[in-house]
Amino acid sequence: MANVYKVTDLVAKESLRIAHEKLQFIKTVDRQYDKEFRYTGNGSPHGSTLRVKDPNQYTRRVGNAMAVQAQAESTQTITLATLNGVDMDFTMQELIQSVDSEGKFDNLSKNYIQPAISSLCSAIESDFLAYCTKATWNVAGTAGTALTDLVVPGAARAKLNQGATPKDGQRYIQADSVTMSSMVNGLKGLFQDSAQIKEQYREGMIGRTAMADWYENDRMWTMPNSSDVAGEINAGALTSGITSLTVDGFSVAPVEGMVFTIEGTYAVHPETKAALPHLAQFVCSSGCTTTNLVFTPAVIYDTTNPRQNCSGAPTNDDNIEFVGAASTNYVQSLMYHKDAFQFVTAPLPIMDDAHKCVFVEKDGLSLRAWMGSDITNNALKMRIDILYGMAALRPAFACRMIGAAG
User: Fold this and answer.
1) Which of 55, 49, 46 is nearest to 75 (CA)?
2) In angstroms, rounded to a whole number, what is the distance separating the alpha carbons of residues 135 and 306?
3) CA–CA separation, 368 vs 12, rounded Å?
4) Element (H or E) spanning 10, and its range?
5) Fewest Cβ atoms nearer than 10 Å: which of 170, 189, 237, 301?
């Protein structure tokens, strides 16, 4: 029976190899917090949550007299609580033969492991992309106009720069196949090095341009605009720091992930606090109604607050305008810095029948394979599990690129 138990380890390692290749988006985001959830003798030191400090921000002093600023520290939480998996059923003959022959195991991988892990990875990446896109309030581009040149990526790049995003070679773009096809065709006349030209025509990839590496990904989230995209502020509390607005003029509630601007409320540079030439953008959270918008980031216009992010206070009757047309869907491409988003996995415990339960890890990605016998059918059942969490700790380091309606 040793060969049967050996299969658990082989399947686990093959599953991890396939997952590592399939996860296009997750490989490009911040993974530094994986180590914080590693098990010690008493389990993970943080349990299922980890509090992460936000970077401190300060205001400038002008002149000789000191103006000492209190440390107004804030934190965000990463929660590791999502368990996903895929389950398979093998006959005893399939498993025994697979460990005796490399060709047999290749067939086992092709017929079972690859499609199972591909489905698992695709679903996780789709969820993660939706989560990250909904957390991103910056939007560049004209809704309804396809991306065919570098104008929109350039505008997204500018928004990242204006948000003090690091220029360290760790910026990326995820775009769907239709957008990528339009971009490849539109940029075919531009100079690229020979290696990138080769990939552009063989794989439909652009390579690196607009200060970012481009990836083709058909799991991009589609923003479904509601049937009403214009209204106005209806008094209510308009103090600095608000994350909700009383509104009127909406016949239906906005959808989570829709982005809006407020008349006269401009974005500011996070360090100089100088007003930027575009209105500040905000993204709807869950819980919006026809009379109340719940959103991020907070509207902070207090000039004494180091976290000021906009100029001018919203006032009653200011117009609220959403990005895009009513009742229209828009596929959202995404430009981002690695530190904008976080994906965390942690090892699941090895169960008592450990000879058929193994844990494998590569570059912070953790999977557990667990096999159990089916005495009735002379078969073995296997489950492959991944425990993970998602966070958007620096969404200002990202920008959606909106184009043609999806």
Assistant:
1) 55
2) 22
3) 7
4) helix 2-22
5) 189
Picking from 176, 206, 215, the residue whose alpha carbon sits closest to that of residue 333 is: 176
Extract the tokens encoding 19.
């997952």
Contact by Cβ (8 Å): 53, 203: no
Q: Which residues contact 144 (CB under 8 A, 6 or more apart)?
A: 324, 325, 328, 403, 404, 405
What is the rounded end-to-end Cα distance, in angstroms, of the chain?
53
Among 172, 171, 156, residue whose Cα is nearest residue 214: 172
The reply to whether the predicted model has a pTM over 0.70 is: yes
Q: Which of 124, 80, 118, 87 is nearest to 372 (CA)?
A: 87
Q: For residue 353, how many other CB atoms are within 10 A of its CB?
A: 12
DSSP summary character for residue 111: I
Contact 54, 75 (CB under 8 A): yes
Judge contact between 320 and 234, C-beta under 8 A: no
Confidence bin at 204 (pLDDT 50/70/90): very low
- The C-alpha angle with vertex 318 and arms to 230 and 248, in degrees rounded to 5, equals 50
Q: How does 157-186 read in b/e, with b if 16+ C-beta sit within 10 Å?
A: bbbbebbebeeeebbbbbbbebbbebbbeb
